[in-house]
Structure of Galactosylgalactosylxylosylprotein 3-beta-glucuronosyltransferase:
Amino acid sequence: MPHQQTNSLFFILFAFFILIMTSLYNLKTIIDLTFENSKLRTNILLLNLTCNNDNNNKCLNEDPIIFVTPTSYRPEQKADLTRLGQTLGNICNLFWIIVEDAQLPSKFIDDLFNRLKIKGVHLVKQTPADKKLKFSDPRWKFPRGVEQRNSALFWIRNNLNSWKRGIVYFGDDDNTYDWRLFDEMRKINQKIGVWPVGIVGGMLVETPLLERTLTNYTVNGFNSRWKPERPFPMDMAGFAINISLIHEHSTSLFSYKSPRGFMESHFLQSLDIKREDLEPLAMHCTKVFVWHTRTQKSALMADEFQKFNMAINISSSLSTVEEDAIF
C-alpha cells in the first residue's frame, strides 16, 4: 500500500512538473512574439518616417504641378472629389485649383483641402444658362468646363505670374490617375508632354504614335479613330503644358466655338504648339498612367432626386447623414 501511494505521488509531481514547464514555454513564446511585434512596429514607424523625410527633401527640387479640376453640383460630386483628393494628397509639390460651377462655393471642398492638407485654391464660376447641360442631356451636347478652365487660367496668370517653373494639367474629377503620371509630367523639358490615355474615344487606349530617330522618339501620328483629322486628336487627360506657355500666350483660352472634340486642339494651337513640340513620355508612350473613367449618373428615385434638387437651397429638407453624403 505505501508503495502504491509513492507511485501516485510520483505521477502527480511529474504531471505538475510538465504543467509548469509547458506554462514557462508558452510564456517565453508570448514574450518572444511581443518583442518581435514591438520590433516590427518600430521598423514600420522608422520606415514611415524615412519615407516622409525622403519625400519632403525630394519636393524641394521638384517642379510644382498645377492640377486644374472643373467640377459641378451633382449627387456624385463629393464622392468624386474625395477620391481624387486622396490621390492628389500623396503627390508632393502639387497645387490644386478646383473651379466649381456654382454661385457659391461648397463647404465640403474647403473641408477637403483642410483635411487632406493639400495646397490649392477653390474658385467658383458659373456656366451661362444657355450653355449648361441639363441632367437628361447627353454629355457631348455642350463643351463642358469651358468657363471653369478659363477661370483657372485667369487665376494662374494673375496670381502665379512670378512662377518660372511649373506644369499645368487639366484633370477631370472622375478620371483615374496613377501616381507615376505626376513623375512623368515633371520630365517635360520645353513646352508639352503627351502620353496614352486608357478607356477613351471608344478604344482601350488612345496614344500618340512614335517614330524613333537617332537621338530620341518623336510623335508622327495618333491612333485615334474618332475624328482623326483633328490637329491633336487626343483627350484633355493626355497632355500637360509648361506654365511658361500660359504666361507667354496671355489671351489663350478654351472656347465654346470649338466644334465637338476640337477644344483640346484649338487650345493647343492658341499656345502655338506644333506637332514637333510634343514630348512623348510614359516610357515612350508604352505605359498607361491615366484612364478616362466616368462616374455613372446615380439612379435616384424620383422623390430622392427632387430632395437633392431642393437641397441646394433648402438644406433643412435633408437629414444630417443625407447632407453628409452630398455636401
About this structure: Confidence is low (pLDDT under 50) at residues 33-54. The CA atoms of residues 56 and 86 lie 18 Å apart. The longest strand covers residues 65-72. The chain has one domain: 61-291.
